[in-house]
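Much of the work behind modern protein science is quiet bookkeeping, done one molecule at a time. The protein below has been through that process, and both of its lines are reproduced in full.


***
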Amino acid sequence: MKKIILLFILLVFPLASAQNVFKSQKQIYLAEYYAHQKNDQKTLEYYLKAIKINPKVPISDVYLEAASISFKLKNNKTAKELLTQSITKQLAPLDFLKDFESLKPYKDSKEMKEVLAQYNDLENQYYRELKNPAAYMEIQNLIATDQLIRKEDKVFGKLSKETDSMNIIKLMELTKKYGWESRAWMLLWHHRGYTDDQKFVWDFFKPYLENEIKKDNVNKDFFVDFDEFDSSMNDFTNKTNKGSLYTLQTLGNINHNTTYFDIKNLDKRRKSVGLPPLYFEHFLYGSELPKDYQYNPENLLKDLENL
């Protein structure tokens, strides 16, 4: 389970800080909407908008999905540019790029072969363009230590508290000096739960990150996992079952909730943290909607545009 969570974090959370994060995320939601509608031209248009607004888009998948659509539209030049940027801007792993499902039909294209052949040089370019290489390397070291003690359960039990404590203090120092580094999320996650012993952590990070959200340097949904975890813990402690606040699809849903708190206002809460209406999950993936959930599907595009 620990390895699965780590893999999820490494794939989902980018390696460097960014700007215009939520402005870019809105374009990605619209791209996903048009992709589901099989409108390739519109899908590519919104993916390219997302990338232009914020080259450090949330995940490298955006570059790769956009590249596959460019190939499909016979725009191989744009496809190659996107593949290149998936490495220089997001450091898409080599094997991940090779095995990306929607790119498999184009694996023998000249453009794909050329980018893969240049992978090492493009990887080096990513590191050369880092805004704060010192912060990046120090956080890499913190993450390496964090994961080393989690390889063996016996070592984890003995050293986790001390190591997590030292890591978070060092992370505070780095954040004060260089700003928030997105990959550090996994270090902060070990201090989830707004409890008394974690007060010193959240007295610093909560106002700091809330300010970064206001400046659009951090996505509006940053605290969703943490809030869901805290709510789940309260339910567990108090033997209540209030349900999830925003989504069931979160690491914070430790009670495996299948219901929502105050479902009539669910979409209002979701919008407040930058999440689209719950119906969007059903629209994209066919997920079952709660029986008490009400939504007019005709409003979806407008709601995505007005997030």
